[in-house]
Amino acid sequence: MNMLLEVKNLNVKLDGETVIQDLSFQVARGEILTILGPNGAGKSVLLKTLLGLLPYEGEIVWHQKPKIGYLPQGLNQLSVKNYPLTVADFFALKNPGPSLEEISKYLLLVGLEKDILLKTAGSLSGGQFQRMLVAWVLISHPHILFFDEPTTGIDIGGGETIYSLLHTIWEKERLTVFLVTHDLSIVYKHSTHVLCLTRKRHFCYGAPKEILNAEMLEQVFGREIKIYEHK
Amino acid sequence: MSFQFIFSLISGIFISGVAGYLGTLMLSKKMSVVAGPLAHLAFPGVALALIFGFNISLGVFPFVIIGAILIWILEERTKLPMENLAAIIFASGVGTALLFLPIDKAEEALIGSIEKITFWETIIVVILSLLVFYVIKRLYQKMMLMNVYEDLAVIEGINIKLYNFLYLLSIAVVVALGVYLVGGLITAALIAIPAASAKNISKGLRSYKTWAIVFGSVSAVAGIFIARFVQLPTGPLVVVSNVILFLVSIIFRKQSF
Predict the structure, then answer these.
(1) How far is CA B151 from CA A122, A150, A179, in A?
(2) Any CB–CB contact under 8 A between A127 and chain B?
(3) In this complex, do B205 and A89 lie within 8 Å of one another by their Cβ atoms?
(4) CA B196 to CA B219: how far, in whole Å?
């Protein structure tokens, strides 16, 4: 196994309050690790900590220095609403800036027409904006993806488009993916491993079929959850 | 047309053009306000220059730049918003200055003295403007990404501290130049208004930047010309020209965002 990341006894505090306690897990290259848990369990905090954006105690060891693609949860459209930034301008913020052809290709992959290139990013619909962000992250060919609820605000068919796209790219480019989602069917269908976090600072880790049973979900989310397993 | 007039025209175009360009970045960062307090920091410098009898610009530059550096350090330490820190720095600077500044002699600091600019000062203005223009051009995309979402900028490998510093330094230089053109009281206008006018009529980043530079330069030329024919000070006329262009831009406003 080609180990990519080792996390040992990770503790993260935000404003003096413990958000992640004594967390240990490993990720090998090519895995899709889904991080599950209720709101406030520390999923986004974990992603940010792994990305080196937050201070922590314990060990986070990256065995390679890979190119990272990050789609944060907080990047909503409000942050661009006041700029005269077209979609093309938004892609040009990348370094190096991709060519227009390349951008059109990726827009098409996430289900957007290329005529939105000249629209301002602030005038897109919420779902279009989110799709554009997915394209924005993927266009640099990252080796590792950090996707924090990538399909927020995207319609049902659209979410499916994004996840199948992710799956295709994952197979083709041997990516490692860290995914935060609330969509359990996605977890079954696309992830190789699951890490669940709870508000009580417990965690569980394993293959989706091993740990995603009603009992475990009740422990994580604190109430009974019906699950429909995809065969 | 005298050489003096041509000097002031050239300096005006350069100062106002680069201020407009920088303004587009500051408007996006909701920081246009910061220029005002920084410009007011010129006053302690002016006070010292008047008291000890040296060239006013020698007093202005160090104070504005030290002010910018203080804001940068305080932002790193306190994480307070820059506009708030600018207000604090400004108040301390002006407060101290008012204790010593011979107000009756301070007109140049208040409304600028572009019409008296010398050949060598013009050369320096042009060089500094080009330098700042180059720096902002290099920073632009990265600062924009930081504005949109700072974490993304960190992951793209952008050194946020360094860029913030260069950015503030550029602001300081432009503000100090602006004090020449329109004086410390209204320098913020050079930075805030062309960008606002440009935003009104632009849909993309390129036209936004271009129009801001055009509006800045045109208003400087207009102000300097009008001042030649009417007996009114140049600086305020440049600002009024800016305001008129802004009002015109509202008529042609794009509705798309």
Answers:
(1) 20, 16, 17
(2) no
(3) yes
(4) 14
Is pLDDT at B75 greater than 90 in this prediction?
no
- Token pair for B95: 């407060």
Q: Which domain range does residue A63 map to?
A: 1-67+143-151+174-231
Q: Which of B164, B177, B196, B150 is nearest to B33 (CA)?
A: B196
**pLDDT value at residue A226:** 61
Given a cut of 70, is residue A196 above it in pLDDT?
Answer: yes
Whether B204 sits inside 8 A of A75 (CB atoms) is no
Alpha helices in A42-149, H assignment, sequence order: 43-50, 78-81, 87-92, 100-109, 126-138
Q: Is the dihedral of CA B13, B14, B17, B20 positive or negative?
A: negative
Q: Is residue A86 part of a domain?
A: no
- Domain count of the fold of chain A: 1
Nearest to A70 among B155, B204, B206 (CB): B155
**Of residues B28, B151, B257, nearest to A120 (C-beta):** B257
pLDDT higher than threshold 60 for residue A224: no
| Domains of chain B from N-terminus onward | 3-251 (1.10.3470.10)
Per-residue pLDDT reduced to its tens digit, B195-227: 999 999 998 999 999 999 999 999 999 999 999
The pLDDT of residue A103: 94
A197 is a domain residue: yes
pLDDT (average), residues A191-218: 80
Over residues B150-161, the pLDDT tens digits come to: 888 888 888 988
CATH of the domain at A54: 3.40.50.300
Q: Is residue A130 part of a domain?
A: no
Residue A12 within a domain: yes
